[in-house]
Each structure stands twice: as C-alpha cells, then as structure tokens.
Write a structure and sequence with these properties.
Low-confidence stretches: 328-383, 513-518
CATH class of the largest domain: Alpha Beta
Helix content: 25-40%
Strand content: 15-25%
Number of helices: 18
Largest sheet: 9 strands, mixed
CATH architecture of the largest domain: 2-Layer Sandwich
Structural class: alpha+beta
Mean pLDDT: 78
Length: 584
C-alpha cells in the first residue's frame, strides 16, 4: 500500500503561506515592501482590528498591468530578479511568495493601474481561489486589501495575540520601513487613529519624527567608511539610554533588519558607558555592494549574512566608539551644565562631623525615610551593636564609594548593602502595598508636564491610560506624539516624568499584550520603584543608613532587588579569617 502522496495544491499553498505570513505584521511588511519596490513616493497603511480584520496598503507606484495581475498572485512569479543567480539582489522582495501567501491566508483584493492604462483592474484571491480580472475605479498605483486573516486556517488564527498586540507589531513594521525610506511619504492609520502622516523628508527629519523631537535633538551624527562599506546615522550619547531596544533602527542597503551581528556590535560599542539593563538609542544605515551581502537567510529577510562579518563588526564598533569619545558641544546640549561635585573620599567613617551631603541628596532622608532630625543637627558617634534578634543587619559603620553601606552585624559578621538595590526593593513593596489596598496614591502636578514621544510609543501609553491611572499616573494626549502628565504617584516626590514614562512605554512593549494585566502591572511597579530609589552616588548620613537597614529588616523579599540582584552581602567572621589566612 503506497504511503507517500502528493499534497493538494491548496494545502501546499497554505503551508507556504504559514512560513511567510505568520501574523498581520508580516503581511503588512510584505505589502509595503512591494510598494517601495514599485517606486512609490507615497504609501498609506490602514489597519483594523490589529490587521486581523483588515489591512489596506495604498501606493502611487508603477502599478501592475492588467495582463500581469493573474501572474502576480502565482507562487514564485516575480518582477524583481533579472536572472536566476540570487546575487546582487537590490530589491526588498524577490521570491514572489508574498501575494500568493497572503491570498492563501486571507481574502486578498488587488486593484492596480499603471501609468498609461485607461483604467484600474481588480483581482480577488480568497483562500487560494482566484476570481476573474475585472475593471475597477482606481488611480495610478496599487491598492492591496487583505481581510479576515487566517479565516481559512482557524487553527493558525487561534495562535494570534490580542488585536492590540498584533497592531503594535504591525505598526512597528511600518515604523522600521518608514525609517528605511525617509524620501517616501508615509501615513499610518490604526483603528481610525492616525499614528503618523509624514512627507518625504531627510533622514534626520524622519528620525526626529519617529524617535521624538527631544530624543533626536541629543543624537550624535556618525559617518565612517572602510573599503566598500559605508556607515552613517545617528546615535545617542552615553547619557541617553532606554529601558528596551525599541529605539534602535538598522538599515542595510535600504532594507530594515534586526540582524544579530549589528545588535551585538552596538551593544559592545556601549558596554563601557551604559549600565547593565540600559540600551543605546541608534539609527544606523549601512551601505555595501550587493554581492557582499546574502539577504536570503531568513524567511522574513530581517537577518543577513555578510561576506566580511568581522570587517562590518569592527567598522560599527570603531565608528560608534570614536563618536562617543567626541566632546559634547553646546549646540548638542544647550542647557547649562551643573557644577561638578567635589570628589568624595572612597570611605567615610562616622567619627566627628561628616562632609555635608550633596545638593541632590539634601532633604532626602526627611522625604523618603521619614527621619525627624534635620541634617545640620545630626551628631555622629560610633554606634553600639544592637541585639541580634532586633537588628540582624547590624549597625552602620560607613558608606563606601557613595554606593555601599558597611555595617557590623551582632554576630560579628560584616554586612555590605547596595543602597540603590535595597531601597528599590523597599519602594516596590511599599507601592505594591498601596496598589493592593486599592490604588497607588497620586499627587497632581502644580504645572502639568508635556512629554514628547515617538508616535507609536505615545499610542502605546495612551492605550494603557487606565492601567497607569491605577498606578497613580494620570496622562492624556496632547497633540501628535505628545502626552500630558497631570499627576504622578505621590511616593515619587519629584520624579523625572519624561524618563519614567519612556521607561514604562518600554516595559509595556517588552510585555506585549499577551501577558496578563497582572504581569504588566508587576513590570510597571518595578520600574516606578527603580525611578524613586536612592541612587548609587548619593551620600547618606549615619541615621539615613540606619533607617534603611531597619526598613530592610521589616520588609518581605528584601534580600534581592526588583531585578533579582542581591541587596546585601554578609561575610562571617570565619569567612573573613579565611580570606586573611587566619584559618585554613
């Protein structure tokens, strides 16, 4: 009995469609790439229901002649390859799989009219079934409509995420393509909200429009060349970082990519200037000969293979490193620089009067740890070790490197506390208790703050308005790409509203909406705690150190911070004696 059989053509097409079109964002990407390859100067993308219900792409490109419409929706039929060699590929698409894959996965309508053709013509593909070509109203260019994605394969459809999550992925795909082709006008509409409407413009203007004006104003220009490879773009200084990689754009020969080699090169270039968990802001463009690049590595063509990977890595790292070493000019930083703080001694012992706290730290204890005695009235003396049962973390002795608290435990052990990590955990637990009790208390701002955002991030935050309100943050739209902050969590005292909101936008993006609301709230609470906590580098008085230790002892989960790092280390007498060779 024969066991091998040929699959039906419709099944073959649906399998192929699943490899190319795994979600609405993939269909959007393929259709917009077709428009760009057709020479469009204006592209409009309209989404409904996250693209699951409807995707519409309208362009003013060269169009498809009536006689080629039926061929356009056949598999492996393409106008983009001059020969069969699969080298020197200069177009975004080339394999001829996009339109037939979308037609197999959704209800596809193509309406197209080339210049010189008397009218537009329409063809419909529904689950692989093709209609007759018929005349239709239409101007020069192509209009592609994909509706009811995966209606023919409901098993695949149930694996799609929520409409909001799918919309964000599709919007992100258009964001990348708009950055890759700044000369093309782009309009993006999602569920009747216009996220951006951009004219054809310079690369710097496009970055400003999609990264946000405030962010773009701080970026450093970058240009470097080695042999036939040219690198250009804009990068953020070390002082400008984000909680996620959302504001990183890589374009290679006009193609937006998420290539691991380029991501790694960027991370390595910033490794000495960015703290762990922070990510650089960058819009990089690489140009090299087509034959030095293999774009046919990944089905979505977002990863590449370079003929000289080491050369590309070296060029990127070297150019970014040199740009970061350049002194920041007044043109890039118009605000007056704060006066430099005198260097602090490596270790301050609590004998006699200590150096005065820095301006940034003055009043912190009264505001954050509720100490009654003002700094000027404090007297310092060597503390006595408290009873073990009452204070297992012991008594503070000194602050080291303005970051770590050194304490003597009642059992003779030495305790070293990371002041930022410790206070971050305390703050999160306090905020979580407020939230569990009903809602985080909010404090209206005397003067509401306007924060500039990339359009997609602004839309993401506005979609979470109710969630943020439960966290004590009240926001509202304030024109395209801007958000008005009316109140903040009362516990934050004097927060950096812009930095906090930007990091929260990153948290919500990382947590993509398939996660439960509880998971997104956990991430947001941790981010709030991090923004409020004592920073490394803040000088603390002895009473402040003691108050921090006492609160740690009374707080659940105080042994680690919100990110899982230890808040303190404890070296027993035996361990110290072993380290100094006093015992084997």
């Amino acid at each position: 009995m024969p066991q091998i059989r040929r699959l039906a053509e419709t099944t073959v097409n649906r399998i192929a469609a699943g490899e190319v079109i795994e979600r609405p964002a993939a269909a959007v990407k393929e259709l917009v790439e077709n428009a760009l390859d057709a020479g469009a100067q204006r592209i409009e993308v309209i989404l409904a229901g996250g693209g699951i219900e409807r995707i519409e792409i309208i362009d003013d490109g060269c169009g498809i002649p009536q006689g080629e419409l039926a061929l356009a929706i056949e598999r492996h039929a393409t106008s983009k390859l001059a020969d069969e060699a699969l080298v020197r590929i200069s177009t975004l698409g080339f394999r001829g799989e996009a339109l037939p894959s979308i037609g197999a996965a959704a209800k596809l309508t193509l309406i197209s009219r080339p210049a010189g053709q008397d009218s537009a013509y329409r063809i419909n593909v529904s689950g692989g079934a093709v209609s007759e070509i018929a005349p239709a109203p239409g101007v020069k260019g192509t209009r592609a409509i994909a509706e009811d994605l995966f209606y023919a394969t409901p098993a695949r459809r149930k694996f799609l995420r929520s409409p909001r999550a799918e919309a964000e992925a599709a919007e992100r795909a258009v964001w990348r393509l708009a950055l890759a082709a700044p000369h093309v006008a782009f309009r993006l509409v999602s569920d009747e909200r216009v996220l951006f409407d951009l004219p054809g413009q310079s690369e710097a203007a496009r970055v400003a429009a999609l990264f946000g004006r405030e962010t773009a104003a701080s970026l450093l220009a970058l240009e470097a060349e080695r042999e036939d490879v040219r690198l250009s773009g804009l990068i953020g200084p070390a002082s400008l970082s984000r909680a996620t990689m959302a504001l990183q754009s890589f374009v290679v020969n006009g193609r937006p990519v998420q290539d691991p080699l380029l991501r790694l090169s960027l991370r390595l270039a910033y490794r000495d200037v960015l703290p762990s968990g922070r990510h650089a802001v960058a819009a990089l463009r690489l140009t090299l000969p087509d034959e030095a690049l293999d774009v046919n590595v990944h089905p979505a063509k977002t990863e590449l293979r370079f003929a000289d990977a080491n050369g590309v890595r070296s060029l990127v790292i070297g150019a970014i490193t040199r740009a970061l070493e350049r002194p920041v000019t007044l043109a890039l930083a118009p605000a007056a620089a704060p006066a430099a703080r005198p260097a602090a001694p490596a270790m301050r012992l609590p004998f006699g009067a200590p150096p005065p706290p820095s301006p940034a730290a003055r009043g912190f204890a009264e505001a954050e740890l509720r100490l009654a005695t003002p700094p000027a009235a404090r007297q310092f003396a060597m503390p006595e070790a408290p009873p073990p049962a009452a204070h297992p973390l012991g008594a503070p002795l000194a602050q080291i490197l303005d970051t770590y608290i050194l304490a003597a435990a009642p059992d003779g052990a030495l305790v070293i506390v990371d002041q930022h990590a410790a206070h971050e955990r305390l703050t999160e637990e306090r905020l979580r208790a407020e939230f569990t009790a009903g809602r985080v208390a909010s404090q209206p701002l005397l003067v509401p703050v306007v924060v500039d955002f990339p359009p997609i991030e602004a839309a993401r935050l506005l979609a979470e308005t109710d969630t943020l309100a439960r966290l004590g943050l009240e926001i509202e739209a304030f024109g395209p790409g801007a958000i008005l902050v009316r109140s903040v969590p009362a516990a934050l005292k004097h927060p950096d509203a812009a930095g906090l909101l930007r990091d929260l936008a990153g948290e919500f993006a990382e947590a993509e909406a398939p996660l439960a609301l509880e998971a997104r709230l956990d991430a947001a609470l941790a981010r709030l705690a991090c923004h409020r906590s004592i920073r490394a580098g803040r000088r603390l008085a002895l009473e402040e150190m003691s108050a921090l230790l006492r609160e740690m002892e009374a707080t659940p989960r105080a042994a680690t911070c919100s990110h899982g790092r230890p808040t303190f280390l404890k070296l027993s007498r035996a361990e110290l004696e072993t380290m100094f060779g006093r015992r084997a």
